[in-house]
């Protein structure tokens, strides 16, 4: 049996309706802004549970604009989890702040609150909380650690559309949060796209201008911004996808349960250990094993696609000039493996993946 890691075309719901909508937008020359964008921003802010949503060109721009909107002290430190996509740290450097890497929690690969406590100091101006793989970080513990301090929280929800902590959508706990709509995300567009959400009117007004050269309308420039607009076609696609998005997430959770039920007895594998009551969107289903490379090759021979998210930790990249090794995440990229999981997969396919993994470890 062939099990692809993902098939983006199969993931498109209501193809005829989406293609018809795109065709109508092309015929009417509606490419930038307009009612489709406003409708999506309104729907997505309601979906997350925030007052405001600003559509932008991509998830990286969303992070950079979000950090800049907080007007943090020049030269201050921003703490970033070591296991995340490079954009999280880029947003810190590109805004002129110092990156401080924090270790990760090996239960769910979120930021390690024990190490975070050690990293917080008088120079800390913000913490980037990444809800990696769709797993919610323990943000209430983080908020307790910074209580009474002038430290902001930026939530990176690039992989966490539909993820909830204590029955509340992630992205609603911090000062500002960001999302990515890259095609491979659970809620993906037909190209790059991103969004910033917040309950702060001040942050909202800054971000709204920043995405469009510091203006709200033509020649209304109040400061130097950038060109980062979520285009109309992407907004239209996301509007349609969002309507039945909860069904897609429910499907992923069903498939994740198959993995948990079939792999939990294997001593050589470490699965997610998620806190009860928290809801993951399972953007990725990641296992950890010292036999990773051999398992990956075995699955490839059985026609099962896998991926590695991520093969290195950010502190291992030389240009970050980090000299300290973080105990839990050191060489973590050598042990983790992402298994196929998305709503296009069948239960039969996921059971087959489980059978292959069980066959490997029986040997």
Give an overview of the whole structure.
The protein has 363 residues and is α/β, with parallel strands linked by helices. The chain has 2 domains: 15-243, 3-Layer(aba) Sandwich (Aspartate Aminotransferase, domain 2), CATH 3.40.640.10; 245-362, Aspartate Aminotransferase, domain 1 (Alpha-Beta Complex). Helices cover 35% and strands 13% of the residues. The chain has 11 helices and 11 strands. Strands 1-9-8-5-4-2-3 form a 7-stranded mixed sheet, with helices on both faces. A two-stranded antiparallel sheet has the order 6-7. Strand 2 (77-81), helix 4 (86-93) and strand 3 form a beta-alpha-beta unit. The model has no long low-confidence stretch (mean pLDDT 97).
Give the CA-CA distance, first to last residue: 20 Å
Question: Which CATH class of the largest domain applies here?
Answer: Alpha Beta
Number of strands: 11
Silhouette: globular
Estimated share of beta-strand residues: 5-15%
- What percentage of residues falls in helices of 4 or more residues? 25-40%
Strand order of the largest sheet: 1-9-8-5-4-2-3
């Amino acid at each position: 049996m062939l099990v692809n890691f993902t098939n983006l075309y199969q993931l498109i719901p209501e193809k005829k309706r989406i293609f018809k909508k795109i065709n109508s937008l092309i015929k009417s020359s509606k490419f930038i802004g307009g009612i489709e964008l406003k409708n999506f921003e309104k729907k997505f802010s309601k979906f997350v549970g925030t007052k405001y949503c600003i559509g932008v060109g991509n998830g990286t721009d969303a992070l950079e604009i979000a950090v800049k909107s907080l007007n943090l002290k020049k030269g201050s430190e921003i703490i970033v989890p070591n296991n995340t996509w490079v954009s999280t740290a880029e947003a810190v450097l590109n805004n002129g702040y110092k990156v401080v890497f924090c270790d990760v929690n090996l239960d769910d690969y979120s930021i390690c609150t024990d190490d975070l406590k050690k990293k917080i100091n008088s120079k800390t101006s913000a913490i980037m909380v990444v809800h990696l793989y769709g797993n919610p970080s323990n943000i209430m513990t983080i908020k307790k650690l910074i209580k009474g301090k002038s430290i902001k929280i930026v939530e990176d929800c690039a992989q966490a559309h539909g993820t909830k902590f204590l029955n509340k959508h992630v992205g609603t706990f911090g000062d500002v949060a960001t999302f990515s709509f890259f095609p491979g995300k659970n809620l993906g567009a037909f190209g790059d796209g991103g969004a910033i959400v917040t309950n702060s009117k001040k942050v909202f007004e800054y971000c709204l201008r920043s995405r469009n050269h510091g203006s709200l309308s033509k020649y209304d420039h109040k400061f130097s911004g950038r060109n980062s607009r979520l285009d109309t076609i992407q907004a239209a696609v996301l509007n349609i996808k969002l309507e039945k998005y909860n069904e897609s997430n429910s499907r992923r959770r069903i498939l994740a349960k198959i993995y948990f039920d079939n792999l939990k007895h294997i001593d050589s594998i470490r699965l997610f250990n998620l806190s009860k009551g928290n809801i993951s969107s399972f953007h990725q289903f990641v296992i950890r094993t010292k036999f990773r490379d051999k398992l990956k090759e075995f699955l490839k021979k059985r026609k099962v696609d896998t991926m590695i998210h991520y093969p290195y930790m950010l502190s291992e990249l030389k240009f970050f000039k980090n000299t300290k090794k973080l105990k839990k995440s050191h060489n973590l990229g050598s042990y983790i493996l992402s298994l196929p999981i998305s709503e296009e997969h069948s239960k039969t396919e996921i059971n087959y993946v489980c059978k292959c993994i069980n066959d490997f470890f029986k040997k």
